[in-house]
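Lab notebook, bench 4. Still working through the backlog of constructs that have no structural model yet. Next entry is a single chain of 333 residues. Request: give me the structure tokens for it.
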Amino acid sequence: MSKSGTPEHLLDRDDPGDDTQSRFRYQATYAALKSLAMLEEEPEVAYIFCEHWEDVLVKRTDGRFIGIQIKTRAVGKDSFKTNDEEIINSLNRFIQLERDFPEDFDRYVIAASCGFWRERKNSSNLPYLLEIVSESSLEETLSNSYLSQLLKKLTKISKGDNSLIVRTLGKVYLEEDAPGLKDVGSRLFRALACCPQVKNFSPQQVLKIEDALIGAMLKAAALPKSSPREEYLVLLKDSEHERTNLTIQGKKITIERILELVNLDGSAVLDSRSTVLLTTYDHPPLSKLPSGMRKMELKMIAGDLSVANIELAKSHKFSAEYLLNQWLFKHGI
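Model written out:
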């Protein structure tokens, strides 16, 4: 039977692609939220990685790591229970990390957009089971009837012994206040607006920074190309090592990267008496530059200056004019 209407005006309810993209964006937005910890006055987070060993891998300033698994479900779906496949897979992943890096991880975190089931204290209640583990000895944990089913399942799929599994479970934390699919964006916006570095920015500026942060997390979560060296790796002595290093660095989000996205260059931090002046988003073509800039660039080209030095001189000239315009607007001098 043909549908009434055209594809332009009808919603395709059989294609889950938009839901999949929504979940990817949720994970990137969640990572952006966690990255803001680097903006604190005395940060405990050194940097984070996206899709490197974990959905989000946090490196603390004390050298220890936190592995975060992010789980999502459509709005209105049930909260996660212990035996759900997604939860078992996350716990198994943590066990593998604890086996491979026994001294490096301080904790493992599961963040769920729909929360965790808590209606009764039984084997389906993951928060309750983890509470038992944290308060019990190894012998008490192994003999607990509520935990027996979970331990048996994890032993089978992880091939780990009981002591490893119980030690791992003792490091697992559940993020109870993780944002939902629909409010994760507003959570990031509010968190950004509270950061001292952007608290005087307009809502439009905060939204732009929010999009830039999410975009950076999405890029880092992919297989990023972060250097021109990607183009000639095959010529290097240890090309595989270099490729690995470039990939890891591309997944890494540092405080410098966050500040770059927030655009803390001094001139962008505006107080309540000033406003944003018009700036160019990208380098305009030579034909569109003001005559002064074009003449300056042509003279530098004739002088055989390098491209890098020409770009630096243009940036200095633009920055000086931009600052002068701000002073004229702000102080009237």
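Notes after review: The radius of gyration is 26 Å. Residues 17-175 form one domain. Flag for follow-up if needed.
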